[in-house]
C-alpha cells in the first residue's frame, strides 16, 4: 500500500440516482446483458503511460504533475507499480496496458533495458497474481528516445532497425510471461516529414518485413494472443504509413499478413484521419480485422490528438453499436488511452476521470445493445438495400456492362431517387442516447 490515493474509497455501483461522487451510476460490472456480465462485455483497461508516466506537458509547457515515482531508478519503478495497482483496486477494472518505457527506466544499453524489463515483469506478475488484474496488452515505446527521431522499423539507419527488433522481442517476451491477451504495435514515428530525404518504397518494405518478423516470433514462442496494429494518420510524423484502417489493411495484404494481424482502433486517431470512430470500427469489422479499441476523444477545436476522457454519449453508443455488431471483444477490450488535463493536479482527479469514463461507456454500451435489440435501425438499413436481394439484381453482378446496358434500354428502366431518411434515423438514435 502507498499513501498516494490516501482516503479515496473503492468505487462501487450505486445506481443512476446516486449523488455520491465516488460511485458508479451506470457501470455495474456484475450486471448481466445477453448472457455476459458488463465487465466481460466492456473489458476495461487502464493505460499505464498516460496515468503514471505522463508528466503533464504540452508543446508549449513542461511538467505540471508532481508524482513521487518520477525518476530513473528501479525503486521508483516499483513504487509506480505499487501506486498503479492501488488505483486498479480502487476502480475495480480487470485489465491494464503498458509500453516498456512506462514500467522500467531506460538502461545505458539494450541489454540493461532488457534486464530491467525482466525484473519489472516479475514484479508486475506478483502484483497481478495478488490482485487479479490482468494484462490486456503490452507494446514497445519506439518513438520517445532520440534514436527513433527518424522512425524505428522505417529508420534509414539499419542499427536502429536492429535495436528496435531487440526491444520488441523483450516486450513480446514480457507480454507472454504476464499472460497478455494481445501485443500492439503503434508506429509513432513510422512515417516521414519530407520526400526530399525519404525513400518511401524502401521504408514501407522495411516496415512490412518488421511486422512479418513480429508474427514469426509470435509463433516461435507460442504466444496465443492477437497481434494488433494501431493506425494513426499523422502527429508526430507528417505522413504515417498506418494512416487508417483501410490503409493498414492494404499494407497487411501486400505483406501477406491479413490473416495474422488485427486492429487496435483509437477514437482520437480516427478523428485525425477525417473519419468517425464508428466508421473505422465498421471498416475493420467488414475486413475481418477488428480487435480492440482505445477509448478517448479529441477536442474538436484543436487539430491534434488531445486524448481526453470520453464524455459524448451518442458517439460512444454508436462506437459500441459497431463493436457489438462485430461480435464483441474476444482478446480485445476498452483501453482508456486518455489523460488528465495538465491543470488537473490531484490524485483524486485520476480516479474520478476513469470512473466517469466507465459510466459513459456503460451507458453507451447499454444504449447500443438496446438499439440492436429494437432492430429498427437494422430494418431501415435492410429496407434501403432490399432491391439487391432479388435474383435479377444479384445476377447483374456477374454480367458485363454491355449486357446490363442492353437490359436497361430494353426494359426502359428509369430509377426514381428514394430518401435516405438520415434525420429520421438520427432521431431514432437519440431515443436511446
UniProtKB/TrEMBL annotation:
Its cofactor is Mg(2+). Mg(2+) 2 binds at residues 266, 269, 305, 307. Its main location: cytoplasm. It is found in: Cytoplasm. One of its GO terms (biological process) is D-xylose metabolic process. Mg(2+) 1 binds at residues 230, 266, 294, 337. One of its GO terms (molecular function) is xylose isomerase activity. Belongs to the xylose isomerase family. Homotetramer. This is Xylose isomerase. It comes from Kangsaoukella pontilimi.
